[in-house]
Amino acid sequence: MAAPRWLNDDEQELWRFILAAIRRLERGMDETLQQDSDLSASEFSVLVTLSEAADRRMRLRDICVELEWDRSRASHQITRMERRGLVAKNKCAEDARGVLVELLPEGMKRLETAAPAHVESVRRMVFDKLSTQDVAVFRELLNKLLEIDH
């Protein structure tokens, strides 16, 4: 087994800054969503994904792909949301093994309530602090980290 390639002091400092930034952004978004609409960030992500889908419905497996979640996590999340009246689960007509998830009116209402404060929170925490040039550089860096080719 190869020896670990330990981070030098500068790399370690940057890594800790990255982790702190992620925690701060997640905490800020969670607080805003909970306060304004009684939604978790995970619920909000599912609702946004469904709201952008054709007929506000998606197969569970496609939600997993879109949110980069494993099937177990998505299934548990959708079940909790179904109990809260935000979404409905049904068998797929084309494939009896498939699960179709549908955004219900209550879920859409909660999303519409949450969205303005959420976007303002994102703007305040991120975009108000960055110049147009910063945004371009940040996008480029994130693309490299995520290995996205545009």
UniProtKB/TrEMBL annotation:
<dbReference type="InterPro" id="IPR036390">
    <property type="entry name" value="WH_DNA-bd_sf"/>
</dbReference>
<dbReference type="GO" id="GO:0006950">
    <property type="term" value="P:response to stress"/>
</dbReference>
<dbReference type="InterPro" id="IPR036388">
    <property type="entry name" value="WH-like_DNA-bd_sf"/>
</dbReference>
<protein>
    <submittedName>
        <fullName>Transcriptional regulator</fullName>
    </submittedName>
</protein>
<dbReference type="GO" id="GO:0003700">
    <property type="term" value="F:DNA-binding transcription factor activity"/>
</dbReference>
<dbReference type="Pfam" id="PF12802">
    <property type="entry name" value="MarR_2"/>
</dbReference>
<feature type="domain" description="HTH marR-type">
    <location>
        <begin position="11"/>
        <end position="147"/>
    </location>
</feature>
<dbReference type="InterPro" id="IPR039422">
    <property type="entry name" value="MarR/SlyA-like"/>
</dbReference>
<dbReference type="InterPro" id="IPR000835">
    <property type="entry name" value="HTH_MarR-typ"/>
</dbReference>
